[in-house]
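Course exercise 7: structure representation. Students receive a sequence record and must write out the corresponding structure in token form. The form below is the worked example handed out in class, using Dehydrogenase related protein (319 residues). Read each field label carefully; the graders check that inputs and outputs are placed in the correct fields and that the protein name is recorded exactly as given.

STUDENT ID: A-19
EXERCISE PROTEIN: Dehydrogenase related protein
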Amino acid sequence: MKLGIIGSGKIVHDFLTALPIPGLELAAIATTKRSAQVGQDLAKKYHIHKCYDDYLEMLKDPDVDTVYVATPPSMHYQMCRDSLEAGKNVICEKPFVFTPDEALDLKKTADEHGGLIAEAITTVYLPNFQTLKKDLAKIGPVHVVSLNYTQYSSRYDAFLQGEILPAFNPKLGGGALLDLNVYNIHLATDLFGAPKAVHYYPNMQKNVDTSGILILTYEDKQATLTAAKDSQAFFKNQSLIAGEKGFISFAGSPGALASYRLDLGEGQDEEKKLSVKHRMIPEFAAFVQMMDNRDQLACDRAFQHSLEVIQVLNDAQNG
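STUDENT ANSWER:
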């Protein structure tokens, strides 16, 4: 995979610290003209071959075969579409796009131009999540799910003072639902599928959901998904999946899932922990395999999952 990065924000800095990843070559990075120096500094530090201050120019580069769209969510749709029309594969940061129609249009564009497209979401590629999926059957039918991602935002104090940074700007995909609860939604829909009903109860400040509770209703279970950017985490961000024969619990960000506990009662209590050097390595290792092997089936499965998540987000916002 010869990767071209669009963006130079926090997530790009984080991603670059995850390298090296076998099979991934940093072919180029594109920023805005305003952030050109940041891009040049990153290119020098991480040995990125080329640097552009216009992503459309990078899309003309024959040495780039896959584009990583790592910009604010409001830019995702157009940048993904431009990249696919240029004949590139696309990896797009979460949340993928805002509506199912946008997602379906991108899939159609990818198919028409022979490209592959996938959403970058750490949760579902983590090794601990893969073993959790296998352990789910051990706890019997699940009836109650409580997922929690509470993280007091480093930008919240500025928000209270009237400075609306991207993390709290609804036009840029900010707010608790799109920025944090999306991780919980990915986890829940991957484990249990699309819900029958979706209800969102946000705490609104300045027209932004700074925290909120999302209820997903299934045939035999209720899932409560909590996310907050305006609160301190309680019980170390504890999440619970409770079944008739036992339960699975974990603490901390569902985007990292550092470990989880499987409890089947009567002393059958076990901590599961498969460590990774960086939470973004498993997803990009999977993307290298998908793109280099032209694994259409894997990409289609990933897209279908992302589409279910987008539908939940859309229902939550419009319900």
